[in-house]
Structures are given as C-alpha cells and as structure tokens.
Amino acid sequence: MAGTLGIAVIGTGRMGADHVRRIGRTVGGARVVAVADPDGDRVKEVAAGLDGASAHTDPAAAAAAPGVDAVLIASPGPAHEEALLLALARELPVLCEKPLTPDPAGALRVVEAEQRLGRRLIQVGFMRRYDAEYERLKELLDAGGIGRPLFLHCRHRNASSPSFFTSDMLISDSVVHEVDAARWLLGQEVTAVSVVSPRPSGAAPEGLQDPQLVLLETSGGAVVDVEVFVNCGFGYEVRCEAVGESGSARIGDGHAMVVQAGGRWGGEIAQDFTVRFADAYDRQLRRWVAAVAAGRTEGPSAWDGYAAAAVSEAGLTARRTGLRTPVELAERPALYR
Ligand SMILES: NC(=O)c1ccc[n+]([C@@H]2O[C@H](COP(=O)([O-])OP(=O)(O)OC[C@H]3O[C@@H](n4cnc5c(N)ncnc54)[C@H](O)[C@@H]3O)[C@@H](O)[C@H]2O)c1
Ligand SMILES: O[C@H]1[C@H](O)[C@@H](O)[C@H](O)[C@@H](O)[C@H]1O
Question: What EC numbers are recorded for this enzyme (predicted)?
Fold first, then answer.
C-alpha cells in the first residue's frame, strides 16, 4: 500500500453511502477507489460523486479493481458471507457492517477461512464500542466502579423500521448490537436467551412482532434485558443502565443540551442512528484505517461476529418456542484469544 489506503465499498445503500461520505470528509489517509452494488443506477450515482472511483455491479470485480487495499462491506447481512470470503481470498483487510452474518453456520465458515490464513483480517462494524458513552461505561465497569455487574437494562428503539424488516430481524439485526455490547462490556459470554413479547404495537407493520423483550443470561451470572421496539414513532433511542453490587451507571439519556424557555424545558431526540452514532462511525473508520495502514487488525473480530450470531440464533428459537434457549458456542480458536 502506497500512502493512501484504497478502499472498495460493497453495497452503496444507506450505510454504504454514509461510509463513502465519511471516508471522503472525515477520515484522512484513505479514499474510495471502487464501489459495488447490484443496483446499477445507484452504484453509478455514488461513483459519480467520487474522484475516479470505478463502479461495479459485481462485488468480486470491485475487490479486484486497481488500487484496492481494503474492503468495506455494507450490503445486507445475508450477502456478507460471500463478500467476506472473496475479500479473504484476496487477503484484503475488511471492515464488515454488522451482523457478520445473520446465522452462526455462515459466520463459522468465515472464521474458518480467516483461520486458514493464520491472521486476523476482519473487523465487524459493532460501532458502539467506539461510542464515547459506551467507552466510559466500559472503563467504569473494568475499574470495578459499581462492583460486580448484576444487570444491564437496555432499550433499543428506532422511530420506524424499513419495509424489509422482519420479526426475526429485531433480534438478528437490532438486538445483535446489545449482544455484542454486553459481551464486550461484561467480558462474558451469553449462555441463554429468552424472549417475551407484548401484543404488537398498532403502529407496527402488519405481521411484525414489534416490540419484543429479550433476556440474555451471561457466563458470569449477569442478566441483560433488552426492550427492542423498532416502530416507537418518536425517535432513535439507545440506552443502557448497568446495575452492580455497589452502584449503577446509565448512558444514552441524550441530554446533551436541555433548553429552558417559555415556561418549559426539554431537548431534542435524534431521529436515527446516523445522528446518534455519527461520532462512533467516524472513530470506528479512523481507527480501522489507521490499524490497516499499520498492518494490524483490531476491534470486534470475526469471532465476536460469530458469537453474536450464535446468540441471535438462540434468540430466534426462543422467540418461536417461547422457551429459554441455551446458546451453543464452538470452541474459541487460538487466533481469537
Ligand atoms: N452499524 C449500524 O448502526 C448500521 C446501521 C444501518 C445498517 N447497518 C448494516 O449495514 C448493512 C446495510 O444496511 P443498509 O441500511 O445500508 O441497507 P440498504 O438496503 O439501504 O442498502 C443495502 C445495499 O446493498 C445492495 N446489495 C444488495 N445485495 C448486494 C450484494 N450481494 N452485494 C452488494 N450489494 C448488495 C442493495 O442494492 C443496497 O443498495 C446491513 O448489514 C445493516 O445491518 C448497520
Ligand atoms: O441496521 C440497523 C442498525 O444496526 C441500527 O444501529 C439499529 O438501531 C437498527 O435497529 C438496525 O436495523
């Protein structure tokens, strides 16, 4: 790699286009040299805004384009495995949007391919690990500031869900963030999942089980409850309260500025993740580019993506059966210890 990191972006929808903008504006030392999306009009439109990037409808052609040193995957989850395997085949470092894959079997195939190379090349886009509030909570927990953690009470609310969203995706696409955050914050594995749901909100699209309450049990004896509500109507809200043996700590109240005027007080609620986590996406990308330029791979690994997918799978079983479902995890290979 000479000087500037050349990136191929696979999937130029909402997130892919956001990352492309970010690489151009807020991340130094990198530029997008190729973009791929099966939607030919869309990919041409995104490429037209870039200086000299090639546009492809085939991800393999983008990864093989001249000047590509690394790949950023922002296609839908079910398309990730194929894109990851083709990047690994070219030994290219990858930042892959979450989920690594929606299913653990696919994630394990990716982990095995990376193991065969004998080095980590994949970082998963669990951007909450780069959010300043989550980082502070992790520091507090690691320092024993509230004693042994007993509970994480989490709220994950989206104003509305995209048309393609399914009841399973509330777990495999949304709660997967809490799964990773809980594993990272607590340094523990999730061992069992239960799901209970109220009568669906009248605001949810027909047939969508929204909201749901997902309970995670962990290897260190903590319990994590996640209210996931993707058509809450009022905005984007991600909160986490940790309760320990000697205190509690809460993040995500979103009270950056409270305005008092005209006999009332209040603030604004972010409407989506691109606002709430804007800084986290920036930091995630900057740190990924810096690590790749230095020949390293950091952050959430393919193993973390696999573990999250295994918990998602248990969650889907728990939702369908109504039963507490143990999580089955393969043995962690030495590469990820
Ligand atoms: N980290 C976050 O907070 C966050 C937020 C939103 C989305 N995401 C993740 O980003 C990914 C994309 O989500 P989105 O909201 O941008 O979806 P989107 O539907 O807006 O965009 C997906 C794009 O991928 C394209 N595509 C479909 N199949 C493809 C394939 N095989 N190869 C390449 N491109 C393909 C589609 O044409 C579309 O343009 C998903 O994995 C999603 O979970 C993460
Ligand atoms: O893909 C998105 C994204 O991961 C957001 O961060 C999350 O809040 C949404 O629920 C999910 O659908």
Answer: 1.1.1.18
Closest CA to 27 of 80, 77, 106, 95: 95
For residue range 267-317, what is the model confidence (pLDDT) as tens digits? Answer: 989 999 999 999 999 999 999 999 999 999 999 999 999 999 999 999 999
230 Cα nearest atom in ligand 2: 10
Distance (Å) from CA 145 to ligand 2 centroid: 30
Measured distance CA(86)–CA(97) in Å, rounded: 16
Query: Ligand nearest 78 Cα, by number?
Result: 1
Angle at 97 between CA 93 and CA 99, to 5 degrees: 115
Residue-range domains of the chain with CATH: 5-127+279-300 (3.40.50.720), 129-273+308-336 (3.30.360.10)
Structure tokens at 86: 């083709």
Percent of the chain at pLDDT above 70?
99
Q: Whose Cα sits closest to atom 39 in ligand 1?
A: 13
The per-residue pLDDT for range 108-136, each reduced to its tens digit, is 999 999 999 999 999 999 999 999 999 99
262 CA distance to ligand 2 centroid (A)?
36
- Looking at the CA of residue 15, tell me the nearest atom of ligand 1: 16
> What's the predicted TM-score (pTM) here?
0.97
How much is the mean pLDDT over the chain? 97
ipTM over 0.85: yes
- For residue 43, the ligand 1 atom closest to its alpha carbon is 39
What is the sign of the dihedral through the CA atoms of 147, 126, 92 and 52?
Answer: negative
| Ligand 2 lined by 228 (C-beta under 6 Å) | no
d(CA 28, CA 128): 21
